[in-house]
Specification:
CATH superfamily: YefM-like domain
Strand content: 15-25%
Shape: elongated
CATH architecture: 3-Layer(aba) Sandwich
Number of domains: 1
Number of helices: 3
Distance between the termini: 43 Å
CATH class: Alpha Beta
Radius of gyration: 15 Å
CATH topology: YefM-like fold
């Protein structure tokens, strides 16, 4: 089975999020699932597990830091 972090996010509607919140949150936290929530066909928010969020935030911070050349 492939790593969920290497796959495309699953696009879901806001209605699906409302009816399956627990399943989606557990998938993001424990299964490494990524979700894009759409409202009226437009992407509104991404859902990822908190560990993935911290990892992405750290990567973004590293890219913002000036590099020192030797």
């Amino acid at each position: 089975m492939s790593d969920p972090q290497d796959s495309d996010p699953q696009v879901i509607s806001a209605t699906t999020l409302r009816t399956k919140t627990r399943d989606i949150l557990e998938s993001a936290k424990f299964g490494g699932g990524h979700f894009i929530v759409e409202t009226f066909g437009k992407p509104m928010v991404a859902i990822v597990g908190v560990e993935e969020y911290w990892r992405l935030l750290e990567l973004a911070r590293q890219r913002e830091r000036p590099t020192t050349e030797t």
